[in-house]
Amino acid sequence: MVPLSWYVTLSSTLFLIGLVGVLVRRNIVIVLLCVEIMLNAVNINFVAFSKYQHVIDAQIFVFFVITVAAAEVAVGLGIIIALFRLRETINIDEFNILKL
Amino acid sequence: MSFSAVNILGTMPEIYLTFFGCILLILETMVPKEKRSWLAYFTIIALVFAMLASIGLNGKGLPLYSGLYIIDPFSNFFKITIYAAGIITVLLSLPYLEQEDIHFGEYYAFLLFAIVGMMVMVSSGDLITLFLGIELMSLCFYVLVGLKREDTRSVEAAFKYFLLGAFSSAIFLFGISFLYGASGTETISGLANFINNPGALKPMVIGGMILTLVGFTFKVSAVPFHMWTPDVYEGAPTVVTGFMAAAAKIAAFGVFLRVFWVAFSGNRHDWDLLIILISILSMAVGNLVAILQTNLKRMLAYSSIGHAGYALMGLLLPNRESLFALLFYAFTYVFMTLGAFGVILMMRKKGVEGEEISDFTGLHKSHPVAAFAMLIFMFSLAGIPPFGGFLAKFYIFFAVIHAGYTWLAVLGVLFAAIGAYYYIKIVMAMYMKDPQENVVFHSTPMGRLALLVTAGTTMLLGIYPAPFVTYIKSSLALFVP
Asked: In the prediction, which pLDDT does B99 show?
């Protein structure tokens, strides 16, 4: 049986890849995908913990996370399309009308 | 697991609002464009219905759906405050939406769904329900913020809010997954039992707790996760900003409080330093950066960051006094913030919103009533007696002193004094200068009613707080199954 720590390492690595991606990449579609990677890292964590704890709760949670992620992408892509129509760009650095 | 009608009865307010929200989506296609205001009346009726149902549940404390959902006086208090905020928002939104040409029926449906999300948040007894509540609320707000589809500022704000919101909920979920991995349960009370005695798994619990704290800090817009607040508050349509600043913030505080006081009260000494740090940073950044702002919506965004800092101090010691102070603060905050945004959204300058501070110069001469209402809200936000904001700050500082953090309370008072500067700057501009811009104060009977209610409540909370205090004292019970 694969030890739990392997799963946690995998999910933490994926989570970090997503995190760094959100902070570093400038293409909004890629950034959106990086958020999805983070959410899926969470899913791996949940399923692994659920298997080792012998409780099924977290597997239900995973279904909710998947559903919410899908809803989030639907709304997010809608917003991105609205933004693209106005600005004709998908580079995050150019969305700077609102400034600190 | 047994299922009884109690579960349905206990969640009747949520069911009402979801139902009415769906009806609104259907009605929207049938009602002709010039009669869209009917939808607003319908929304108010729905909220009144839900409020009646919630008042019927007052004083009860019971877990529903085997602990996933909790009805208690605490959550009921938040729900009733949120309905009040919702009704005032609808009253304010009618003329505003027409003027901005964004009067869609979906607006009201999304408003109701967002309210359902907040209700689920404040009465969640399980991290699954909590997450779903937060997401339901946030998804509705992403859409509402970007409602002005033709306006780049609005869509850009929606995009920023969406991206950072999704990012923070991923971090929040990662934290939950570690808490679950350590304890094997997701109910808040189960976590509490585990955290009292975590054994060797303590690092995992602490890690999970810090990650969930990040998620909550983002939702209450406290430093260091506040960057989205000014942008989103400035870009969003002003009604949405007002509703977000008032209702979404206190709902986030409600759930923050429940998780940290119930689930994490066992390891209080692991997180109180973090809360103190976040609170001081929020007060500093909120109050200092607000001085530099020229846009009133942006200034109020920084002021709301500062207010998050004051309120966070009340989280330090879980007892009745802090709970009372926090609830009083939340209640006062809703009315004064909504009122301030209400005044801003009625100001028009050549067909656009008058949201610059310079638009308010000499308002006293041209529109004395509007100027007086703004004065009430500004003084209350600054914490000057005899308005509600003063008493709210007073209770918070007292609770903090009784918790043994006198130096923190002193620091809070100092920052409040700095904060008073930029609020009074606006009052000075309104009363001591001559009008420069040609601004119009566009009010309707409904809008005036909303301003009257918010200003009246803000005044009453300072002058005659006894009925509110009695009511809040009766809601000081957190139910722990």
From this structure: 83
**Domain coordinates of chain A in residue numbers?**
4-94
Task: Name the residue range of residue B399's domain.
Answer: 19-473
Q: Tell me how far apart the 2 most distant CA atoms of chain B are, in Å.
A: 70
Strands (E), B277-398: 347-349, 352-353
Cα(B407)–Cα(B343) distance, integer angstroms: 36
Q: Do the domain assignments include residue B98?
A: yes
Helix locations, B291-387, DSSP H: 296-313, 320-346, 363-366, 368-382
Q: Cα separation of B151 and B153, whole Å? A: 6
CA dihedral A66, A71, A74, A77 (to 10 degrees): -80
B-chain residues near A80 (CB < 8 A): 159
Interface probe with A: pick from B68, B140, B160, B174, most Cβ of A within 10 Å? B174
| Nearest chain A residue to B166, by CA | A35
- Residue B119's CB is within 10 A of a number of other CB atoms, namely 29
Q: For residue B301, which of B104, B436, B161 has the smallest C-alpha distance?
A: B161
H helix runs in B31-151, sequence order: 37-56, 73-100, 105-122, 127-145
How many interface pairs between A and B have CB atoms less than 8 angstroms apart? 120
pTM score: 0.94
What is the least distance, in Å, from the CA of A99 to any CA of chain B? 7
Does B478 fall in a domain?
Answer: no
Residue-wise pLDDT for B465-474, tens only, equals: 999 999 988 8
Burial tier of B385 (Cβ tally within 10 Å: 0-12, 13-18, 19+): middle
The total number of structural domains in chain B stands at 1
The three-state secondary structure class of A91 is: strand
- B189-247 pLDDT, tens per residue? 999 989 888 777 888 999 999 999 999 999 999 988 888 999 999 999 999 999 999 99
Query: Residue B377 phi/psi, 5° resolution?
Result: -65, -40
Smallest CA–CA separation between A100 and chain B, in Å?
A: 7
Among A22, A38, A97, beta carbon nearest to B153 = A97
User: Which residues on chain A are in Cβ contact (under 8 Å) with B167?
Assistant: 22, 35, 38
Residues of A with CB under 8 A from a CB of B: 8, 11, 15, 18-19, 22, 28, 31-32, 35, 38-39, 41-42, 45-46, 48-50, 52-53, 55, 57-58, 60-61, 64-65, 68, 71-72, 75-76, 78-80, 82-83, 86-87, 95, 97-98, 100
Instruction: Give domain status of residue B12, yes or no.
Output: no
> Rounded to an integer, what distance in angstroms lies between the CA atom of residue B471 and that of residue B473?
5
The answer to whether the Cβ–Cβ distance between A80 and B159 falls below 8 Å is yes
Cα angle: B343, vertex B254, B416; to 5 degrees: 55
Q: Considering only the top CATH level, what class is A4-94?
A: mainly alpha
